[in-house]
Design a protein that fits this description.
The protein is of the alpha+beta class. Helix content is about 35%, strand content about 10%. The mean pLDDT is about 80.
Length: about 100
């Protein structure tokens, strides 16, 4: 009985890992357009391309997906859009 439970657990764990990985890849692939400052979500979150808050940048925010070295990055808050690595919005949370 324990072997069946262990097997089911391993299958679920593997499926979850694959789903999370592919979800992150899909977000990076779909985000192609740079966000504009007049975008309704950008306005609501007070997004700017250049942060005025020392140490708080899109590139070190928990919502960012992708490489920190890139100039424009996909953000889970702005679906299908890229944000400036040096940008900032009011939803900024330090990447842990």
């Amino acid at each position: 009985m324990n072997k069946i439970d262990r097997r089911a657990f391993l299958k679920l764990s593997g499926s979850t890992l694959i789903g999370v990985t592919l979800g992150g890849v899909a977000l990076r692939v779909n985000a192609q357009e740079k966000i504009t400052l007049d975008d309704p979500t950008a306005v609501a979150l007070k997004y700017v391309h250049k942060s005025a808050v020392d140490g708080e940048y899109c590139k070190n925010c928990a919502y960012i997906q992708g490489e920190d070295e890139a100039e424009w990055l996909p953000c889970s808050l702005f679906a299908g859009k890229l944000v400036a690595a040096d940008g900032w919005c009011s939803a900024w949370i330090k990447k842990g």
